[in-house]
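Workshop exercise sheet. Pairs work together: one partner reads the sequence aloud, the other fills in the structure field after running the prediction. Swap roles for the next sheet.
Pair: D.N. / O.F.
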Amino acid sequence: MVQVVLASIPMPGHLIPLLPIGQYLADKGYGVTVLTSQALEPLARDIVTTPGCRLHPLRGKAAFDGNRVLAEFPAMKDTPSGHRQVVVAPHEMFIPPIPEQFAAVQEILRTGNPAETVVVHDSFFHGTWPLPLGAPGLRPAGTIGIGVSVLALEDPCLAPFGFGVAPDYSPAGIERAGQLRVQLRQEFEPVQSHLDHVLAGLGAVKPAPYYWDAFSMLCDTFFQLSPPSLEYGRSQLPEHIELIGRPEPASMAAFEPPAWWQDVLMTERVVFVTQGTLNNVNHAALIGPTLDSLAGSDVLVVATFGGRPVPPDLTVPANARVISYLPYEMIFPYTSVFVTNGGFGGVQAALMAGIPMVVAGDTEDKPEVAMRVEYSGAGINLRTGLPTGSSVLAAVERVLREPTYRFRAKEIQDEYRASDTLARIRHEVDEMLAAAST
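Structure field:
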């Protein structure tokens, strides 16, 4: 039976974008093996309970608790915001699991026919990397990387991933971008050496590309889940890399509206604020300033805490409603402005709904996501993860007042709608299978 391996590191924000792909292929009769942690099985239950589909759990270091990243990797918590996070995170989180990821892929390939298997993987899942670098092992018919964050591939005209620097295509801007690339490569040398050491231990005979380039270069095809307007103009892009939009999210499970939901339905303007599901412990970073600064205004503010309990010490103004969790699909139809710390999934969900944004994030990939929102014209980037209430208020008022932000968000929404993302992925899977059978 033809098999698609849907591989993701055990973080909800990485697995969730892959779920519509897996469900679509399962519904079309492909056998789908979801490769992630046992803890995330509930998210993939609709797929793994489809006949011919299953879960293959990751083990050991590859099965870290993606809901407790800062507790599991203290070095991440201790790393200051900014580009150093894209140096520390690979060394601590993403490179150590490679041996057990690779072992899991090989286990799956041994149970079936490798020539009838395609691996579709979250770009942060590196368990397929050893093979193109010469490591021994069974080889699938093809590998498809799925870009679940912004495109990190270096470009001669752009600053490197991690700095959150706006594109500047002037000669001086290009020179400055080159200087930043040199700086980051120098800082990254110990991490790159660690990567090569891990891969060599699995039998790789060639050094890996620069780590952040390897995301899109060590796979047969790379599909970036973005429309063109959400990425920078580039001087070059390899032919195997495509920007294909993003599939509609999986159907929302039944969700009981909160008792105050009628307030949302009856309000003309709703400002929705969240700090996502990862860096959401300190609600004073963004939710607090948003609630405080908009108190007494003529908008209804709805705040969610990424599934965490609502803090008991939170001061809730009269024009605000708070809840632990609220599905985007439920709130976005009524949202005028989305205030976010820049999680890529949330930003994409907002743009798919045509919602303009105010973005304030400075951890993980969030400075890069926030700058792309600014570049696209669909929102305001506050360029900090700790904004003042006055800056949040001014930005929200500007987005509400100036129609250009919603206009650009609607234009990008149209780009998503014009993309047949799932059909493109299925076509690529079929092409790989056909080539492997000849």
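Discussion prompt: The first strand starts at residue 3 and ends at 7. What would you look at next?
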